[in-house]
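User: quick one
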Amino acid sequence: MVREIENAAGIPVVQIATIVPIMLTVGANRIVPGVAIPHPVGDPARGGEGDRAVRRQLLERALKAIMTPLEEQTVFTF
Amino acid sequence: MTTKTGTKITTKRVVCYINQFFAGMGGEEQAHVPPSIRPGSVGPAAQVHSLLGGEAEVVATVVCGDSYYGENLEAAREECVRMISEFKPDVLIAGPAFNAGRYGVACGDVCAAVTGKLGIPTVTGMFSENPGVELYSPQVFIVKTVDSARGMKDALGAMTSLARKLLGGAPLGAAKEEGYFSRGTRKNFFHEASGARRAVDMLLKKLAGTSFSTEYEMPVFKRIPPAKPLGDLKKATIALVSSGGIVPRGNPDHIRVSSAESYGVYDISGLDDLTPDEFESIHGGYDRVWANEDPDTVLPLDVMRELEKEGVFGKLYDHVFTTTGTGTAVAHAERFGREIGERLKRDGVDAVILTST
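Assistant: Done. Structure below.
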């Protein structure tokens, strides 16, 4: 799905999920590792504010990935 | 083949499907002709008839222009099935289409429709890169051919031999042995060696660098070059997409909890947060406790709205796209992606953040 959106729209698509090898396999080009499978963009164990801060950090990382020129599949861990 | 029914001998009946070119009507200038059916064998069908060696006979040949079929898919399909059914065939043989794309799609489509509606086996033949292979190989027996009509003799030989087997002449072997594209089905049988023995044998061959064939092929995924990055985030419209199964409560579009065949498109233009009162996860592949307490942990609308309001990026696209990514067929996932991508392009969206569980 990631690859075909990028292909059809010709726009950068960043995927946030937890299992990086799967994202590499399905052909995602911009990859941001998430927190956990059932809550990729949040960490409920940290409580309301902490959860939200984790989400914000991951989304800022995703926006950075969207702005980054790439030659190949890249995992953004910071 | 001939079978004795009481004292009556019945010969199996074959109908062939070919395009305007192989019927000798002409090339592109005749590609618009609608389907017609002629009794007996026309063009390559005559060769099919002789290869059947009296075991079965070609009772009729359908001829249809490739452009006509491609441009009037439903009407052409319906008309062809109707014509074919009148001749009460036991098998349909279409093509071979080699690497002709429209012809391949027509052959695949008519075969799939005939098998579906008339319940008889169908056989066609194509080159591996014909788009008809990807579209129809799960439903139709498609014999592997070379890319052009120079391979006609071999193609017809293989197609006819497969058709004879399907008519009940001999047991059908694996796709690789019979020379057709795998339909993705598995047949159970007792092997003389145990799974452990076969796995170790395979491993030893692999270590020795000799060839071996797997018993469970992994799907091959495609790669595309990365899209260019955005120049200016502050003017960008960004869309959220997720395969994490977050939908409005009650799952109004009845998206399947697994093996999804559809996705939902939901208006979030007036929302700052996905609350558990209005949204839920229907994904069948992970523990939904956290997603149902706060759907934003899967589909991060709240923080995206916050970043939008702060002016970090221009605008959040006013709809989200969601499905459940568990057991979902690659072909469906690719279709979702294409459709979503085309819509986003049309609506001038600049980038996508896609979350998966």
